[in-house]
């Protein structure tokens, strides 16, 4: 390998290692995301006919103008004197209301003002094109429910007031200590709700708003199939406060907690402030981002049985500290609540760091690039098919690395030419390994051969392979994306599933991939000893077993890559033969 090649390889390795650090800074500099507004609507924006509480002024204990000598925790039996018109003793009916936009319907219940169900209009439940839309049911834990605040809990009804449109609603109630509660929920154009929760002290004494938590609904896997063995898609993620990064608690804590618990459900406290909390399954997620400081989070998990500690559903809560409200004072919390698909292009519009729920990992920049290319080809080129997009992406990658692959093929040819000399060296110094290694290095140097040069094209492919594996695992764009006989590129082909023995399905692409690898071996010059060559003959069979249950989109990529590699080799040898023939003539 000459200096130019070594420099190019060094630049490539340094780029791969430093890109995960540099990419977020570039994204923040050139593609900033605006945070959600934290101020409440002005008086001009509030409909007086539907206003149930005074305009919110955010005040905490240390910020209150009048000193507080005694804090009372009040109950209905304590004889507290509430403001005129208080609804403390009212029992509201059990009711529901739906908010609509072009992409989703949201069902809210009067029970704690909870989100009970989400209907996603752009996604169907199963492979059947006539199947109904995806419905996320958040039982047993409803979304946006407060815990630790008696009077507005999940088992108590709030009063519902409809908004001016079918995208807004108001809910109100009274805590047992006399604080009034008002919630304003507004649905935007996409998958984001804006929630403003207002607590007001309508008594004549200071009242404590105790420690409490705001809940995200239960998430389960959808009816489009269970997770493959060893794959955990249910998760709870949180962005730690202070720039500490995202923690993925669902995989680290819940499985172990459920395994060690005799109960079917567990609650695990993580007392560390967070900026947002997410609960997710493979393709859909909830993300809650309040505008005030949290105290920590609670992880909620459940398993199907004591014998199977596999997590069956997850939920979570953001915990908040207590506040003190003086007479006629109010406290407001504004939250952004995303509930919908794990689609990178949409989630990124809400907040830059929330895209971490995709779990792209170390190769995140490569994953984002591959996903962008796939979506670009799919959206811009007829017939708008992700199978064709994967094949064209493979062509693009092969074209970019064509010079390196060509150099690797040339290196392997030279290795074949000096194979007899290598054998002589091994025989001559078979009892002197140090001298044998020195002689081999001199032989490589004299013939300008790099012994690992033939492996370089494969090494470069590894980050791309793993990145595409992650993209196909988590990007919702691939869900139910068909190609030719393949119904879902994010899953194995599974043809005739249930008709074959042991419940297996027939996957054709792994056989095509193994066949292409076998043909490539026939075209590749053989180097090394006979034992290594025998081992390599079993590689197609090993790859068949390895790839058989991989996502068909990933096997399509690798098979296309193999075919292009063979094509390049055939072109190389034909051109070389033509050149040698011309020299003889």
Give a brief rundown of this model.
With 585 residues, the chain is α+β, with helices and mostly antiparallel strands. It is 35% helix and 23% strand. The chain folds into two domains: 43-359, Beta-galactosidase, Chain A, domain 5, CATH 2.70.98; 371-584, no CATH class.
Detailed description of the structure:
Helix content is 35%, strand content 23%. The longest helix has 33 residues, at 552-584. It contains 14 helices and 20 strands. The protein is of the alpha+beta class and 585 residues long. The strands form four sheets. A nine-stranded antiparallel β-sheet has the order 6-7-8-9-20-16-15-12-13. A five-stranded antiparallel β-sheet has the order 5-11-18-17-14. Mean pLDDT is 78; it is low at 30-89 and 223-227. The chain folds into two domains: 43-359, Beta-galactosidase, Chain A, domain 5 (Distorted Sandwich); 371-584, no CATH class. It is elongated and about 105 Å long.
């Amino acid at each position: 390998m000459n200096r130019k090649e070594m420099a190019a390889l060094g630049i490539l390795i340094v780029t791969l290692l430093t890109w995960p650090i540099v990419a977020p800074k570039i994204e923040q500099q050139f593609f900033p995301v605006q945070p959600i507004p934290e101020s409440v609507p002005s008086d001009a924006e509030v409909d007086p006919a539907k206003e149930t509480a005074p305009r919110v002024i955010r005040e905490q204990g240390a910020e209150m103008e009048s000193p507080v000598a005694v804090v009372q925790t009040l109950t209905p039996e304590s004889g507290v004197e509430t403001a005129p018109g208080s609804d403390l003793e009212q029992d509201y009916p059990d009711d529901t209301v739906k908010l609509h936009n072009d992409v989703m319907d949201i069902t809210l219940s009067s029970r704690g003002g909870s989100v009970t169900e989400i209907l996603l209009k752009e996604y169907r439940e199963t492979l059947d094109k006539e199947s109904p839309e995806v419905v996320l049911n958040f039982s047993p834990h409803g979304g946006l429910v407060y815990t630790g605040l008696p009077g507005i809990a999940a088992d108590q009804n709030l009063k519902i007031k409809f908004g001016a449109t079918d995208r807004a609603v108001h809910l109100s109630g009274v805590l047992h200590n006399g604080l009034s509660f008002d919630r304003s929920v507004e649905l935007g154009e996409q998958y984001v709700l804006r929630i403003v929760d207002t607590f007001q002290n309508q008594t004549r004494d200071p009242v404590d708003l105790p420690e409490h938590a705001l809940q995200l609904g239960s998430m389960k896997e959808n009816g489009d199939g269970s997770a493959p063995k060893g794959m955990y898609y249910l998760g709870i993620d949180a962005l730690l406060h202070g720039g500490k990064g995202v923690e993925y608690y669902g995989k680290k804590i819940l499985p172990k907690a459920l395994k060690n618990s005799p109960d079917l459900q567990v609650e695990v406290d993580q007392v560390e402030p967070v900026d947002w909390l997410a609960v997710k399954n493979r393709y859909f997620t909830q993300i809650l981002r309040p505008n005030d400081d949290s105290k920590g989070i609670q992880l909620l998990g459940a398993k199907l049985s004591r014998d199977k500690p596999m997590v069956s559903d997850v939920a979570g809560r953001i915990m908040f500290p207590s506040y003190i409200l003086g007479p006629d004072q109010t406290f407001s919390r504004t939250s952004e609540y995303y509930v919908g698909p794990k689609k990178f292009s949409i989630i990124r519009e809400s907040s830059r760091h929330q895209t971490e729920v995709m779990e792209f990992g170390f190769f995140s920049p490569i994953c984002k690039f591959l996903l962008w290319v796939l979506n670009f080809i799919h959206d811009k080129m007829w017939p708008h098919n992700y199978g064709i997009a994967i094949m064209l992406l493979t062509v693009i990658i092969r074209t970019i690395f064509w010079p390196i692959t060509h150099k690797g093929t040339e290196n392997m040819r030279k290795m074949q030419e000096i194979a007899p000399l290598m054998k002589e060296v091994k025989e001559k110094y078979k009892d002197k390994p140090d001298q044998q290694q020195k002689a081999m290095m001199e032989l490589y140097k004299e013939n300008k051969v790099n012994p690992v040069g033939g492996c370089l094209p494969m090494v470069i492919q590894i980050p791309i392979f793993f990145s595409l594996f992650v993209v196909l695992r988590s990007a919702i764009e691939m869900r139910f994306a068909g190609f030719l006989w393949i119904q879902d590129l994010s899953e194995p082909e599974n043809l005739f599933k249930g008709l074959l023995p042991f419940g297996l399905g027939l996957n054709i692409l792994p056989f095509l991939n193994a066949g292409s690898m076998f043909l490539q071996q026939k075209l590749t010059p053989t180097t090394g000893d006979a034992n290594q060559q025998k081992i390599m003959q079993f590689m197609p069979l090993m790859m068949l077993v390895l790839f058989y249950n991989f996502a068909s989109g990933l096997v399509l990529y690798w098979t296309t890559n193999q075919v292009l590699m063979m094509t390049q080799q055939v072109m190389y040898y034909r051109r070389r033969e033509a050149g040698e023939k011309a020299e003889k003539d």
